[in-house]
Amino acid sequence: MSFPTIGVVVSTTRPARIGPKVAGWVAGLAPYGTEVEIVDLAAIGLPFLADGQMPSAGEYDQPSTIAWSERVRGYDALVLTVAEYNGGYPAVLKNALDTLHAEWNGLPVGVVGYGWGGATAATGALATVLDRLQTVRLDGPGLRFGEDLTPEGEVLEAAPEDAVRGLFDQLVAAARERGSVTA
Question: Which InterPro entries does this entry report, sorted A to Z (predicted)?
C-alpha cells in the first residue's frame, strides 16, 4: 500500500495575501496517511513563459521549468487554493499551468476558491483551463468572506470542513484509479 502525495497550491504572490493561511487550513484537513505539501507559487518564482519551445513539445530549457515539471510529476494529486481577483484567478496560477503541458494530463486536481462571492467567477474560468489541460478536475467548496473566513484569512467555524475532506477523498480515489497510488 502506498500513500498519496498531494500538493496544496497557494495561487497568490502578493505581499499582503491570505493564500498561505487558506492553503494551510485545507492541508490540515487531509486524511490520515496522506502526505501533503504546501506549494507556494511565490517561492517557486516561475518566469512568465520563458522556455524557447512551446510547453507541448516537452523540451524545457529553463531550470525553473524543469524543476517545476519534476515537482508536479512528484504529486499524485493537487489542490489549487484559488483567490478571486477582479472576477478571475491570479495570473501567476495561469502561468504555472501554461508553463507545463503533459504533466497535467490525467492529474487529479481539486479546486478550493475563496473570495467575497466564494470565487465562483475565478473557479469557473479556471475550470475551462483545467479541462483543456485534461486534468481530472474536482470542484471543492468556495469559501466566502464573512461566512467561512475573514478578509484577513482567519477560518471561521462555519467553514465547510466536510466538503474539503470530501474533496480529498475524491482526489485519493482518482489517484488510485489513475494507478499512481495503490490500495
Answer: Flavoprotein-like_sf, FMN_Rdtase-like_dom, NAD(P)H-dep_reductase
- How many Cβ atoms sit within 10 Å of the Cβ of residue 68? 21
Closest CA to 112 of 92, 129, 89: 89
- Identify residue 140 by its one-letter amino acid code: G
pTM of the full predicted structure?
0.95
Question: E strands within 73-173?
Answer: 77-83, 108-115, 136-144
Q: Answer yes or no: are the C-beta atoms of 143 and 113 closer than 8 Å.
A: yes
CA atoms within 13 A on the CB side of 140: 30
pLDDT in tens, 4-15: 999 999 999 999
Residue extents of the structural domains in the chain: 5-178
The CATH code of the domain at 5-178 is 3.40.50.360
